[in-house]
Every structure is written in structure tokens, then in C-alpha cells.
Amino acid sequence: MTGKKRLSLCIITKNDQKYLSNCLQNMKEFVDEIIIVDIGSRDLTIAIGKQAGANVYRMEWKNNYSEAKNLCLDQAKGRWILFLQANERISKEQLKEMHHLLENPNVEGYLLYVDRPAQNHRISSPVQSLRLLRNRREYRYQYKAFEQISDERLSNILDAGIRITQQADPILSSEVDSLILLLEEDIKEYPEDSYLQYMYGIELLNQKKYQESIVYFQQACKNVNFDYLFAPHLYKCLSWALISLQRHTEALDVLDEGIKVFPFYSDLLVLRGELRKQSQQYEEAIQDLERSLKTREQLHSIVPRPEINTSIILETLGEVHEKVLNHQQALACYHQAYELNKRNQELLYKIGKLVKKIDSTEILKKLFKVAMEQKNLQQLITLMDIFFQQRKYVQVLAHVKYLESLIGKGEQIESIKFSCYMMLGKVEEARLCFSVINKESPFYNHMLLQRIENYWCYNQWKEAGELLEEINEIESMENSIKAAYHLLHRLFTEKELSYTLLAKQEYEIVSTLMENFLWLGHIEKAQLLLSLLLQGEKEDQYIKLAEPWIEGNHYENIKKIFLCISNEQKQLEFKQEIIESLLRSEYIETAEKLVKLGDSQSLGALEYVLWSKGFIKKIKEWIGKIHSPALQTPTKPSKALVDFYQGLGLAKNDVNFTIEEMTCAKIHEEIGKFYVKAQQREEALSAYFRALQWDPQDDLVQEKIVKMFQKNSSQFHVFLEEKCWILEGGWFHHKQEFIHYVQGLIYFKNQLFEKALAAFLKIGEDKSSYPIAFAYMIGSLWLAGKEAEAKRRLKEQSKTSEVFPLFFYICKNYALGRLDEGHRQYPYSELIMLEKQRIRDSSYE
Amino acid sequence: MNVIEGLERKLDQLMKEPNNPLLFNQIGVLLYQVKDWKYAEMYFKRAYQLSPVNKDILYNYASLLYQQAQFQKAIPLYEAYLELLKDDKEVMQKVRNCYYQLGEYESAGKMVEQLQKV
């Protein structure tokens, strides 16, 4: 090669014969020269290096890594330097990519991240990742260990997006201790150096000496320059040490400051999100985690690269969404997280749990299809397990054949089939499966126990007793399990409730059995087991214990469980989880009863949803299912009005409606908006009035009018009562009638129902707007709690079929208004959004 | 000099020149400023009677009527103004608004068309 070399590979070696030749083989064709500085090998390292064509320099080891690296730099001829250890490799694809990076004229160095399988949980500094840099005279390393080129000298560093794989080396791992000794010497020499303080803090953190590490990190924070490469990581380490010691408030302060200074270092946002999650500030946690995900979209430009990966952030975000009962969003997060990290089978179970909750099996079906296509056995087994847990026995039986084709026939497959058949009541088929199981097999015991459970189910006490005797003889079965089954047998046959506390394993057996009995419809037996389980005082399990009782709307049993919870926070969590599930199944009354149990506690967003569901249900029950004519058909606008509207250029802006779809009310509303934009308030109000005259129930227009009233009520009154505006549409024929209507609406919207009633009452029965005013009267009475009077007045009316849809519409809008309030308070609540959608979609009929 | 003082001075002047339309107009403006709409209208009306083609008087009188939502009366005054000053966008918009307020959408649409040409 002639001219200036491009890339020099530099390696510091000591007794590396085991790895060196592989490393050189891997790198040879991608670099222009290889420099090896050996610091005292006694094996064949030097010979291997020379044989591979490297320039090998021996150096007397003086406990100083900087000296060794600087010798490499002195000898290297390339424009770029790549530092590797002998036990490190870079894939060929990535090496090709690396050559493109060397073309960038604006970069002085690149960070390459090192995968250390043997030290996965060790924290390391991004400074140690600066492996690729320009060969300049001014770039020289300092410090004996954890050597660094001063940040004052080296800037313009980018992330290479290239990973180095390090092979585990026990000798290298033991060298960490000697490195720390050297670091201590350095820190004695330069006690105020922020980099050394930070590195020493990291080493203390690795030794779990949190308290001591904090002292060094805090000193480093005082001395650090925010431009330093390690500065964001320093803040992360300090906050992590504080979190480990449960000093959350201080950790939050550090994170707040860190986020201000390093807004793109998403790890700080993730840690703050996690802290906020722990302190139940869920909405703030969502904000932080979403922001961190957004920041990571520009990951390539963030230096140093944040370490917490997207899959973990998504999983954490999913957990927060679950906490605030945003199940759909949680599901989406877990799904995305799983797509990014398919090794995490735990995520599949989380997905399964949510799928069951929201009754949406699409994701599982998709995942199963992909697993089948890819023949991913682990994923298939996990998914089958999820289907089994969800009692999709028919589905499991259908898929088990495929599984059989992959792993072959065997006892595992037969045991799955046996369990499914037993649960489906297909005893003969189950017996066939059982017959092929060897008595010595681990599956045999499990199947035997299931058979006992099945006999209990159908009151076949004698047969169950015989099998119990059989299990007594089985040595491989734990005695505690045998005892548990004998206890259960006595419980069913003698109705004797033993006060033995159940250990964890027995508790699991009994709770699964309770769920099975419930699923099979044996309520009494399930109740017996519930009493037994409640003796265990395992309050953490009570939500799970109550869940199977929701399906059958068993309030008494849910109440029984709730009354056993002593802790207020746990009571609240129980209420939130169970009420949400009850509402999902439309068991509104049960949910309302559950709220009243225990101390009164705020249920957050759920409170709005519970209110709304109860409110709409009550109204629907009251008005019944009377088929009635639809609300007045919206009037089509005249050509002149459409021309005017189009002339104003408004038609172009409205993407939601075509001209043909526009109604008089809609056009005037749009004109109102036009005048608002032009800051012509009275003109706007007049346009909105006209929209309301055409469609007195248009909620959006109503809101706009009320807002204008709130902005300046006296001016509003003057305009309404004194100014000249015209009447249009078929509802109002006298100005005074419309004035009463507007006044009534304003009171109604402000929840002043008595005043609203008085205003609406002024509209006479002979007026065309009377039905709608009357509907508002009924609504006002109803919402003021005067239901009896509302019913009485309605009874006096002959045209109830005309009033009911109007009344329902009014109530719907009222409920939407309340939910909007809730949305403002809990902007991330999926429950409120879904309830709003449900109400919008709900029809009177 | 505050509005009241100005008003007194103008009224004194008016005693000397009882047929001066500009004085009537100026008094109308001062009354408009103190939100005495009724008397402002009276003075503008007199000014207009005395000088029906004065653009300032036309504009002021029409604006007062517009402010009072007397759109029907304001329209001919604005239109007379536009005879004198054809392309006054602001006044054209006022006429457009008057027609809209009166529900005369065809005329409102025509005014929009004219506005687009300016």
C-alpha cells in the first residue's frame, strides 16, 4: 500500500494467544495496518502477532494503560485508529459499514458499543466506547486506568451504530480489581477531576456501594462540564444510586436537572417515568415514557447513545397504562415490545392477560400464525399455555396436532390433550390419553390429581376416595400436595372447613380448582374453596381471586373478598380493577354497590365512567324501548346560502363534509367560526344563533354560545335582548321564545337546573320549540334529582314519543360534557375516551 | 381636551353655524365615543340630511347604524359611500355582513363576489 494509510488497528496484549489469531484473522482484510503493543506476554502472543503481519512493540509495563495506548498512537500511520482487545470481534457486515464512517469529514471519533456477555450487569462508561478516532498528535490518553482523551481536546463524536462482541475471559474479569487500584491512585493524584470521580463512582456502584458512590457522583456533578461526553451518563448513575437507596425525592431532583440539560438522553426520562410510576403519578409517567420513545426516534444523533432499549421502555409504558386501566394501549405497548424482543416470553403472558380482559383475540391469533410459519417452538408452547389458561380448550386441541408434528408424539402432548378433554367433560377421550402415560412419568401424578378433581366435580366421592388412596402410595408426589387433596376431599364430603393455613403451592392448587369449578358452573363448591382461600390472608392475591367471580356477577362473593382486605391502598386497587371489569361486562349495579363498600375513595378516571354508565342505563330503563320518529331531519341550505358560504372560501377548509352534506346549521356554524377568526364577535354570535335556530340540539354550537356568554355575559345579554337579529328555521317563530331557550341552555350547561327549568317553562305549549324545551325541562328535573316530578310531568304529556329521543339526546350530551371534564382531569385515560365513544355511538332505540 | 369639553365647544360652534353638516358629524363622532348612541344617530342623521354625499358622514352614520344592528338602514348609506370610494374593502365587508345578518344571502353572495374582484 502506498501513501497515507487509512485505518490502523491497535491492540494492547498480554498473554492473549488464545484469542489473538482469531481477532487478527477477523480484522486483517479491513485494516491497513495492525499495531500491537505487548505489555508483558509470556505465551505465544507476540509470535502470533508477528506472523499475522502486525507491527509488534514490547513495552515495559508500568501500571499505566495510557502509556500503552499512546505508544500505539505514536506508531500508527493510519488517518484513523481503531482500538480493540484481543478477545473482541466485529462482524464483517459492520466492518464494511465502518469504512463508510471514515469518509465523514466532520467527525473526530466514533463510539462503538461493546457487548460483554460475562459482565452484563456491570455498568460501564460511554467513554470506554470511544474506540474509533482520528489519528492526531493532540489526541493522547491520560490516567493509568480507564484511560481517556480529554474532552477539551476531542469533540465532534458520533455514534457508529457498530457493536463489538467481547468473548468472556475470566482472566480479564479478574483484572477489574487491579484497574480499580490504579483508578484509586489516579484519584489521589487528581482529587478534583470530574472524570475520575465519576469513574470511581461507577466502580462503587458496580460493587453495590450506593452510599459511597453518591459522594463521588455528587462531586463529579459539581466539577463536570456539561459538554463532556460522560456528563449525561453521570446524571444517570447518580440518580440510579439514589433510586437504589430509595431516596426518590433526591433522585427526582437529579433527573429533573439532567433532563433540562440533556433533553435527548432518553434514559433520564425513562428513570423519571419509572419513579413516577412507583409514586403512582401515572399520567406524568406516561408523559416521560412517551417523550423518551419520541426522543429515541432520532437515536443515531444522540451521543452518548441511551442504554435503555425501546422494548423495555414500551414494556414499562404498558405497565403504567395497565395501572390506569388503559388496557388497549397497554396491549399495544406490550405487543410492540414483544416484536422488538421476542426472547421475552413474559411479554407474551402479559399480552395474553390483556387479551382475555378486553376480549380481543386478534393479536394472539396473529402471533400464533407467525409462530407456526417460523416454527418457533418456544413461542408456540407459550401461546398454547396462554390459550389453555384462557380456557380455549377446543383451540388448544386443534393446535396441539401441529405441535405434535414439530416435537413428535409423547406424554407432554397427551397430557395437554387429557387436560383439555377433562375440562370439556369428554371423559372417555381423556381416559384414552391417560392410558398411554407411564406411571413413572412426571405427567402421571398431575393427571391423577386432575382426575380426582373431576370426580369431585360430579360428586363421585367414592371414586375420588379411591384415587386419593392411590396417591398415598406415590412416593414421587410431595406430601404437602397429598395433604392438600385429602383436606379438600374432607371439605367437600364432610363440609368441614379446616383452619389450616395454605402454603403457596397449596394456595395455587385451591385457587385454580376454585376457578375450574366456577367455569364448570359448580358455584357452591367454588364458594367453599373461596372461604378456605380467604383464610390464607394473601391480600396480594385478592384481585385475582375476585376476577373469576365477575363473569357470573357474584356480588356477594366479591364483597366477601373485599371485606377481607385490611389495607386502604389495596382496597382502592381492588375496587378499581374489579369495578372496571364489572363495567366491561355491563354489571353496573354491582359496580355501584362495590364502590360503596369500605371507606369512600376516589377512583380517578373510573369514577367518571361509572357515573356515565349508571346515568345512561338509568335513563334508558326509564324511557324504555319506544320506537319513535327520528329527530327532525336537518334542512338543506338554499343555493344562495351555499354560494355565500363558498364565496367566503370556507368550503375549502372543511374536509369533513362535502357541500351536498352541508346543512343550514352547519353552514352557519362555519360562518360563525369565520367571524370569530376575524374577531367580529357579534357577527359570530349572530351566526351561531342562526345555527342553533336550525338545530337547537347541536351540542357544538351550544358550547360555543355558552363560551361566548362566559367570556362577556353583560355584552351577551345586551346582544341577545336588545340587538336586532333575525330568526330562521322551523323551531322558533318568536324572538322571545328563542331568548328563553338560549337562557335556559346557558343555565342548563352551567348545571343551574332550577333556573334552566324556569327559563324553559316560559316557552308556551303552543310553540313549535315546545317539545325540545319540554325535553330540557324533563332533563333539568331529572338532573336536579327530581325524578318523580319529571315522571309526573311527562305523564301529563301526550307526545312522549316526540320528547323521549330529544330527552335522551340531551342526557347523552350532558354525560359527554361530564366525561369531557374527566378527560381534562385525566387526559391519558383510555376508559374515558372509550366511554365517550360508546355514548356517541349509542342510540335511543 | 376631553370629550365633554370638546362636545361643549362644538355645540357652541353649532349655535353659530346651525346648518354646518361637518359640525353635526363631529358632534356625532364625540357622542359615539361616549356611547350615546341615540343622540349620535340624531346628529349623524342631520349631518347626512345636510350633506348626503360626504363620504365621512356616510361612513360614520352607516357605522353607527351597523353598530346598532340597524342593517337595513346601514346598507344604502354604505352603498352610497361605495359610489364615492369604489374599492373600499372594509366597507364592502360591512355590506356583506349586513346582508348576511338580514338573511339576504343572495345579495351577501354578490358582495362577496365583488370583494373577490378587488
Automatic annotation (TrEMBL), chain A:
UniProt keyword Coiled coil present: yes
Coiled coil: 272-299
Glycosyltransferase 2-like domain ranges (all copies): 8-129
Pfam families: Glycos_transf_2, TPR_8
Domain of life: Bacteria
TPR repeats: 311-344, 665-698
Keywords of the record: Coiled coil, TPR repeat, Transferase
Sample GO molecular function, one term: transferase activity
Classification via PANTHER family: GLYCOSYLTRANSFERASE, POLY-BETA-1,6-N-ACETYL-D-GLUCOSAMINE SYNTHASE
Full protein name: Glycosyltransferase involved in cell wall bisynthesis
From TrEMBL, chain B:
InterPro entries: TPR-like_helical_dom_sf (IPR011990), TPR_rpt (IPR019734)
Keywords, alphabetical: TPR repeat
Protein name: Tetratricopeptide repeat-containing protein
Gene3D superfamilies the UniProt entry points to: Tetratricopeptide repeat domain
Alphabetical list of PANTHER family matching this protein: CELL DIVISION CYCLE 16,23,27, CELL DIVISION CYCLE PROTEIN 27 HOMOLOG
Intervals holding TPR repeats: 21-54
Lineage, uppermost ranks: Bacteria, Bacillati, Bacillota, Clostridia, Peptostreptococcales
